[in-house]
Design brief:
32% helix, three-stranded mixed sheet, Alpha-Beta Plaits, binds adenosine-5'-diphosphate, alpha/beta, disordered C terminus, 367 residues
Length: 367
């Protein structure tokens, strides 16, 4: 079997009517997953949608490809040729639309490492804002393991409206958008920073978020380029850091905190998830990890400690069943904890909408 390369992808894209090789860029291949950009004139974006779909189909049909994602990017002067896939540089300019202009506050939920329950916390916090009567959105930027469609119980290919903007579906009272609507939720994939960044920017700029009080972004785990550039390019009102109590998770959380500080994004506080274990049959509480570590770390770092969420089977089962605990068991003691944390976060947000930060010197909008 021929190995899967960018050349193979380009070769197969030749058969797609309306698509030429110079429109394709940033082909990223990882374990059978292929992501690439199609550069189009913004005025023709709508007409290009069938071409985008046909291109995805053509790539999906290549032997060895498990999933394909084509992202339409708007750039009038298309680059003459594709940059080599390994090149770590801006791939293309992203949509020039403003980032969620009618959204009052955008907050990021971040973690230094994966598996600490960041997505679970983001989903339940978003639901807690809904419970507070806030118009809420949830953007799943954790494209390495987009789990929000599963946690929110929706799976569909979003449609576009007459303005060529992607319509965010509503689940349990909030608007949601996820890369998982476009690609399968599978084992973690490695996407290069610039590709992650442009995909996230597209979800922010090309989705019709409408008028919201708060948009919660479930960030990819870690403190790499993608998180940094998002923090720099999105008018974040603040970031919430999720950590488990173990030392290793806390030292990673500290890296996250320093990253946000470096780009002047206020850290709204730290949440300790899986803080202690509550036995589902007898209710016995056990501090299986180093309970309280995040509170101490928050104090040391001079940021608010927002609260603790225990490790409890009800949290996981609710997420797996497609309705986060805060939405499915509104009076559950852990739902109350999430609501208290959300209320604490809300009070720390500025009264005014956060305005976009000026672009950082030396960084292009697509960096
Ligand atoms: P991350 O986004 O940090 O990678 P997830 O939110 O996907 O982590 O959580 C990883 C797993 O842990 C999921 O199966 C989730 O249901 C479970 N989980 C997260 N937080 C809790 C909790 N407080 N109690 C029980 N299970 C949890």
């Amino acid at each position: 079997m021929r190995s899967l390369t960018a050349e193979t992808v380009l070769e197969n894209l030749k058969s797609v009517p309306g698509l030429t090789a110079d429109m394709v860029s940033g082909i990223a291949i990882d374990s059978g997953k292929v992501v690439f950009s199609i550069t189009v004139d913004p005025a023709k974006a709508k007409q290009m949608e069938p071409v985008r779909r046909a291109a995805e189909e053509a790539v999906k049909n290549i032997s060895g490809v498990s999933s394909a994602l084509a992202v339409l990017t708007a750039e009038k002067n298309a680059p003459p040729s594709s940059p080599p896939p390994q090149q770590k540089q801006p791939l293309h300019k992203i949509s020039s639309r403003p980032v969620a202009p009618q959204v009052k506050h955008i907050i990021a939920v971040a973690s230094g490492k994966g598996g600490v329950g960041k997505s679970t916390v983001a989903a339940n916090l978003a639901q807690a804002f809904v419970a507070m009567g806030k118009k809420t959105g949830l953007m799943d930027a954790d494209i390495y393991g987009a789990s929000q469609p599963r946690m929110m119980g929706i799976r569909l290919q979003p449609e576009t409206n007459d303005d060529d903007m992607i319509i965010a579906p509503t689940a349990h009272g909030l608007k949601i958008m996820s890369m998982g609507f476009f690609v399968e939720e599978t084992a973690p994939v490695i996407w290069r920073g610039p590709m992650v960044h442009s995909a996230i920017q597209q979800l922010l700029r090309d989705v019709d978020w409408g008028d919201l009080d708060i948009l919660v972004i479930d960030l990819p785990p870690g403190t790499g380029d993608a998180q940094l550039s998002l923090a720099q390019n999105v008018p974040l009102s603040g970031a919430v850091i999720v950590s488990t109590p173990q030392d290793i998770a806390l030292s990673e959380a500290k890296k996250g905190l320093l990253m946000f500080r470096k780009v002047n994004v206020p850290v709204l506080g730290i949440i300790e998830n899986m803080s202690y274990h509550i036995c589902s049959s007898c209710g016995h509480r056990e501090n299986i990890f180093n309970h309280g570590g995040a509170r101490i770390a928050a104090e040391k770092m001079g940021v608010p400690f927002l609260g603790e969420i225990p490790l409890h089977i009800d949290v996981r089962e609710a997420s797996d069943a497609g309705t986060p605990l805060v939405a499915s068991q509104k009076n559950h003691v852990i739902s109350e904890s999430f609501k208290n944390i959300a209320a604490r976060i809300w009070t720390t947000l500025p009264a005014e909408k956060t305005t976009p930060r000026p672009p950082q010197a030396g960084r292009s909008s697509a960096a």
